[in-house]
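input
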Amino acid sequence: MKTTIHVAALAAAILALAGPMALAQGDAVLVRLVAADNSEAGDGNGELADVLPLLKDNLRFKSYQLLASGKVATGGTQPTAVGLGYSILVTKQGANTFSVDVSKGGRSLVKTRVILAPRQPVMLGGFPYNDDGKVIVVVSLP
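output
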């Protein structure tokens, strides 16, 4: 009986320590850099299907192309490079509230708080791209 209690206590202690660490390491958001312009290039071969309605309903461009994408950890202290010289630092503030800092070349372009919910991406930016285009940063839950 004594051995069973010690094993159970040890297992509980290991789970208590491993559980929060595993959760903290797995917390991430999906970040996509999207080129928006008036070319006839199309809409990204289905790569943007889940965010295309948001982009088209809010922006007046003819074409949207995925430039880069990746998961960004929400517990970091240093920005994560996401492509084209852009870096993003995402910090979890609450259950579904995040601080997002978008920078390029070491210069902060936008720093804001967003509320993320499943299937509800958030767009940030409108940074210059090529002659008449913009880079839009789309942040969502994976």
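quick obs: The two ends are 45 Å apart (CA to CA).
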